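Journal club side-thread
Mid-discussion, someone asked how the predicted structure for our own chain would compare to the paper's figures. Pasting it here so we can look after the session.
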Amino acid sequence: MKLFSFQALLLILATDAWAAPDFEKEVAPILESRCLSCHDSEQAKGDLVLASLAEAQEHVGALLPGNAAGSLLIEKVSGPEPEMPKKGKPLTSGQVEILRQWINAGAPWPKARILVDNPERDLDWWSLKPLEKDGAQRGGDHLGQTLNPVDVFISAKLNEKELTPMKEADAETLIRRVTYDLTGLPPTLEEIDVFLENPDWDALVDRLLASPAFGEKFAQHWLDLARYADTHGYDKDKPRNNAWPYRDYVIQTFNSDKPYSRFLQEQIAGDVLFPEDPDGIIALGFLAAGPWDFIGHWEVGEAKLDGRIAKHLDRDEMISAVFNTFQATTIQCAQCHHHKFDPIRMEDYYRLHAVFAAVDRADRVYAGLPAAEQQKKNAILAKLNSLKAEQEKLDTEVKRLLAGKVSGIDRRLAELKEKYGTGLKPQYGYHSGITKNQKEVKWVQLDLGRTRGVTEVRVIPAYDEYGGIGGGFGFPIRYRIEVSNEPDFTEGVRTLLDASTEDQPNPKTRTITLDGDGKPFRYLRLTATKLAERKDDYILAIGEIETVNEGGAENFALGAMVTAKDTIEQAVRWKKTNLVDGIFFRELGNESALAELRELQDRRAEIEKATRPPGTDLRLASIKTEVSSLSKEVASFPEGELVYAAATQFPRGGRFTATGGKPRPIHLLHRGDLDSPRDAMLPGAPPLWKDAPDQFFKSGEWNESDARAILAKYLTDQENPLVWRTIANRLWQWTFGEPLVGTPNDFGRGGQEPSHPELLDFLATQLRDDKDQSIKSILRLLFTSETYRRSSIHNEAYAAIDKNNLYLWRGHRRRLTAEELRDSVLLVSNVMNRERGGPGFQDFIIEKPQHSPHYQYHLHDPNDPASLRRSIYRFVVRSQPQPMLTTFDCADPSMSVPQRDESTTALQALTQWNHKFIEAMSGHFAKQIDSKDASSSISQAFREVTGKLPTGEEQQILAAYLEKEGPEALARILFNLNSFVYVD
């Protein structure tokens, strides 16, 4: 009989003395919520893993059953300043005591129980706390009184920092500042004069808020956030010709002062919540506004992993845009692990994937068809897409069954097709440079490497199928073929064929065969003396040249070095090396090759027929008939007005097919890897405030449109503190130039805290609780404050205390945005086209090579009347942004841009002076400058660009320059003044 050891007896006694806490209910939640984020099997910080008892005990001394006092785990989490956990608050004394009792009781831990990271949701962060009612009340006490509530908060902070605000700016500065900030345009001289005569500030602000230009200015702020552009982006940056209705919708939304909740909800689920309103569909352009991978969706498709990755990234882009834009939350950080800073779990992230699981981006009708007709069309589209999906599935299954039976046949067919084509496959060759002179001499030459005894030379014409050209493309009308052992053909030249004395018929597909007579040579040159006509110009083109020995066993020209007078290298069609690659067009006369080709094709067809499951051919034929019939039905509907937006119904294109509203399966992905799916996910969102839902449905059956509608209502919930603080912060930023929270898209622990938290909460509650949720009412409050009207004069002493003007002791000085600069130049030059809405103007020429469009800005005429509209109506390209606007820090449309950079570079100065747009507009502006009345003209022109009269010294300098260089040069000088480029 084995006796118990003394240590074992102590352990039994200890276990009896301390009743073990319930592992599942008390211990596991502490370890999973506070420890596993750093100490699971993947993180293993300090080589300690707490996922299982065995792994915990691998770290010596970390967990000693029966000995809590000696266990490193208790040591690290105990004491007045515990070392662990590194993130978040320390464990409570109660939690530490539970762990202590559990270890002293022997650390009972079921063997099969593996813990997983399940962090607690720590909502103790400024942005997640309920909106501060006290601050709102404090500001509200002053509503309707002389003192603007905004100034109450700002003055309190200035007093706290012992800062005295600057005095009010002068009237000319103020009207220029507020006109730019509210409309993005300079005030006219008439508007300045009216205000100077009657400086009614409230009336001025109201007039500007009512201007159509207000919506154009503030829409630009929103489109920066919404990552709006008129092309897809990625490597095939194809145009989106129907993106613009969303841009116009945003402009109209700001001008009509639509309630903010409605504006937000429309952009998430407008088609569900407001089905009778076209805006409900147009607004979904927000979800579709970002970049889209044409190749991944259209060419690869969801049958392949790369296509599924494209879908995943597409949903991630939508989710990130929604949460970054509407509630300054970096939800995308939870894709591969729980969020490192904020109370967002991976489950939250993938539940949002489920919300958008059925959604794609495509053109969809928003007007022009009655609802019943649109519903009927959608039903037909759904049936059509279903049939095409079935067809693809059947074809895929047949290919799978065939794969092992016809691999040898397919390999041989590929060899024959590469060499001979499918009967008539064009294989190109050498193409000279283009000329307008038919008699210009062109030549192309082969170097065989060394002297060779050639018995036969074959010249094979080029074959081009484009436009039905066929054989003989570019073959010379007069030419000669010569050989020599000298590369410059200065001596020892022997002529094999002289066809240069009279016009020759085009050989079409016939090979020109010449007797090489066996005499050795190294170089062969074909010289064209009269070229073939292409279309309004002339070229030389040859498909292949062969030089063979007796019996034709070896072609010495294969792979030879080719030189030419000139060449067009356009792979894969035209290259010098194509002339000697052994690949060229052959007529069907090659009976042996063609017979083999046909025999293999017939044999393959027989095998395929025998392999197809019974009824497959009949079903495929039936599908083909149905698809044809349904396609005609779809085509019979009026197209209607289209917007590029989130969609579940649209015609199939390539491998891109609509879901018809059926959600794709969504799983939580281990480490974000599509090859490692875990639990299936239902729609939901992170519960970031009290009573917020985390899962929208209880069962696996749910409707995609309902999921988006619930998300829209989740975002606009009265108790959601993030959404109201986020928009309040943006409105402040768009008014004063700098936000109250310096990270406008991130209100989490990785971002900055507000400079004026009470003011932020006051503005947020004002907007939330306003029955109209009026954006303009908040802006009116901001723009009519004394804080807004302060001078931007610098003060060294104050700057030493608050160098970034965080506390608003003076007005922020800012430069014109890229769009404001361009629009101001147009307006001052008196050429601006004020047409509003509709498709964007293109300030580029599109070249369409085989792969993707090239947007060539340098080819555009800056005087083109169609392009003289406001910049908000520009056709925005992702891959090739507008060079001038990019130089002046225009937003990158491929990402959400909450705040623009404001750089100062030498390139900006060069652009301002030399860009052809500035040059062209200077010519227009110069028409307003009269050299004969220099003094008056200079004053007028200076005031047009700066809003003020020039000083005496400025007047004198500009007059001298005008006399020396002329009006156009003076106009360029005025466009380069700092007082033009900067608002203050």
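Post-session note: The CA atoms of residues 426 and 466 lie 10 Å apart.
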